Amino acid sequence: MADPDGPLGATPARLVPRGPAALDRVAEALAAGAVVAVPTDTVYGLAVRASLPEAAATLSRAKGRDEATPTQVLVADRTQAEALAAPGTLTGPIAGLLDRFWPGGLTVVLPRRPGVTLDLGGQEDSVGLRCPDDPWLQALCRRVGPLAATSANRHGEPPLTTAEAVVATLGEAVALVVDGGVGGQLASSVLDLRAAPRVLREGAIPSGALLAALGDAGEAGGS
């Protein structure tokens, strides 16, 4: 294992156990512009501050994918999400959907709030938001702000399910890897809500459950 007191960004990455003490170390690394690997309620993820210039490009280089690929944003709560989504977006049926599946394994793609100029890849007027069902990760987002994130793996390969595997595979590109035990193998489901609802990726939540919940929320809102 790498020296835990070695310089930030040393090779291989430093492995730290998830817990209160790790928050300070991870926040420091993120503030310095580093890529960190964190456990989530779905798969291990690579993350940088969403406000970092070239955030999406930095993550894409770390995992070897096209820099134009859209990057999701992890938020601590609905308040952080509302600061990034277009005004009035998180209301009605969408609010009902989030009441049911947030925190959890659902990423919603929404119109972006005017004036939010984050580098997230993809279309500049859209944003993919997820509130993870992980108190430690929510606390990190409260500490440093929303995080641009992607699954921890080489592009085109299966998600890595342990911190040790992340160190072995991606250690040169990652400053810190937070050990949260064995992770899942399914990433979040991605639901595009910019127009007619469309499932872009079926993951932790089945597509049918998402669309049914959205319909139920719409009926409840109209009753």
UniProtKB/TrEMBL annotation:
Q: Does the keyword tRNA processing apply?
A: yes
What is the protein named? L-threonylcarbamoyladenylate synthase
Which EC class does it fall in? transferase
* Limits of the YrdC-like domain: 20-205
Single GO MF annotation: L-threonylcarbamoyladenylate synthase
PANTHER family given for it? SUA5, THREONYLCARBAMOYL-AMP SYNTHASE
User: Its catalytic activity?
Assistant: L-threonine + hydrogencarbonate + ATP = L-threonylcarbamoyladenylate + diphosphate + H2O
Give one Pfam hit by family name.
Sua5_yciO_yrdC
Cell compartment(s), UniProt: Cytoplasm
**Keyword vocabulary terms for this entry:** ATP-binding, Cytoplasm, Nucleotide-binding, Nucleotidyltransferase, Transferase, tRNA processing
For this UniProt entry, what is the primary localization, expressed as one broad class? cytoplasm
What EC number(s) has UniProt assigned to this enzyme? 2.7.7.87
Q: Does the keyword Membrane apply?
A: no
Into which family does the record put it? Belongs to the SUA5 family.
